[in-house]
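hey team, just a heads up i'm posting the complex here instead of the shared drive bc the drive is being weird again. everything in one block, sequence lines first with there labels, then the predicted structure for the whole assembly after. its two chains so it's a bit long, scroll down
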Amino acid sequence: MSATDRALAAPPRTMRLPEALLAVLGAAALVLVAFLAPWLKFVLTVALAKGIAVLGILLLLRAGQVSFGHSMFLAVGAYTVAFLAPAVPEALLLLPLGALLAGILGLVIGLFVVRYRDIFFGMLNLALSMVLYSLLEKLYALTKGTDGIRVSGLTFAGITPDRETQEWVMFGLALVLAIGFGLLVRAYLASPMGRALAGIKTRETRLEFMGVSARRVLLFAYVMSAVMGGVGGTLVAMTTRHVTPQLAYWTSSGELVFIAILGGAGSALGPFLGATAFELVRVYAAAAVADAWQMILGGVLLAVILFAPGGLWGMLTSRLKGRGA
Amino acid sequence: MSAAVHGGPQDRGANRPRQATPLLSARGLRLAFGGVKAADGIDLDVMPGEFLAIIGPNGAGKTTFINMSTGYLKPQDGTITYDGQPIIGLSPRAIVRRGIGRSFQLPQLFTEHTVLENAALAIAAHAGIWSPFTPLLRRGYHDQAMALLDRFGLGPVAQSRADALNEGARKLADIAMAVALQPRLVLMDEPTSGVAAAEKMGIVETLVRVLRDTGVTAVFVEHDMDVVARFADRVAVWSQGRIAALGPPQQVLNDPAVLRDVIGIEASPPSGAGH
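-- predicted structure starts here --
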């Protein structure tokens, strides 16, 4: 029996689930919930916005890296809206501007942090995010410190819709962007660069001996994740209408990592599953036990880590596979 | 040991194949880790098209030579030229792009990828991976990767995850990834270590067939003297960071000093030596 014959005994790759179908069903479910419970539109919009930012965390997780400071890009997107809205109230301009500025900051910071791995990568991101937090908090004349900045007077394609319409517009915008970035990330992860990114996690040495710069591969993913953080931040600012330095605080970054683990890194749908579950648990747990809702969230995360290491996405797919078998 | 030196730096010309210009040429390489001399004046020419085996006890500096030739380690003294150009100080990436591939004692496969993806990624790396939104397994890369794996007899396991392979298949896949980069020279660190004895010869035969077909020059570190006797054009014997002997296998592997000091005093010449 030759080496190759023996290796034939290896289990074949499992079939891919109809991810696209699940995405369509998920989007339809969100729209339905927004119709049936209008007060949840706000919560779902914020969940989608955070989901886009968490997609960025997912990219870094694919490379085996965890950023504990990624909400700094969310804050950059949000403060872009807060600072520029008085001069440029057009939401459709503020969105790409927030993404662009976050991307530029991502490139500058990325050039430095992609030289490091693991705990050093995570802690450097955290340290830099806390620098931004301190600036946002201390430069009161510019940022109004912890009071934050109110966002008002936004227009959408030149129109100022009423409150109800605006909620729908924001929800729709977040949903369309979530689908767009989900597709983009999916295509990227299947591309040579995306597969090389996953290679950083398992065999970075081999990448170098294939003539590929692992740092450049990681930098591209880092900038992409910063852009998605920026987009998430602009959406959060436009939805909540109030921007504070808390967005850049380390606990906000921890929340993004929390959502990524909760949703699972196995699919571009994971971050949205995680973000929706996170926001809904937070809302209902806070209403039910105002003083202990964080304990409930902690319990949920513990349960996921212990019983579903693939996150909600992993749990969902194993259920579906079990049913299909 | 000096009596055992054949074709070493002093009389390299006598054993040099007919081609005049070496593909890889090392002169006076020195590198010490603390008090341990991993390279203590290495002079070696690798001629185009040849299969050069490096043998010697553990700790003799065999892997160090491969690491220095591929940019992973920088010698404290000496020069290495590839195709007439100095390569010391270049990064592994730059050296790979010049045409030197390598495989590893512990295969460096992307363990979460399939074997097909591993091969396709290496092919894409050679072509340029900077296309962020085209699928890796698009037609061209898929077909090229399958053709490469078929040549190595790995076609049937193309869809298996790399960490599900046995050691022999992992070794072949590791070398296939080096060959995917279309190198002119491949440096292989113990391509058969950890492989079951019954499978070893089959794997080496596959390997040599592919490399000969491709016209790749090969340097390989090997502990199995039967493999060396059968497949090497020349053998370099490493001992304490120096080349103790260099020449055709039938000559080197029958040298009493090599047998005593390098292979071990009890060892008898390999069954295939001289053939």
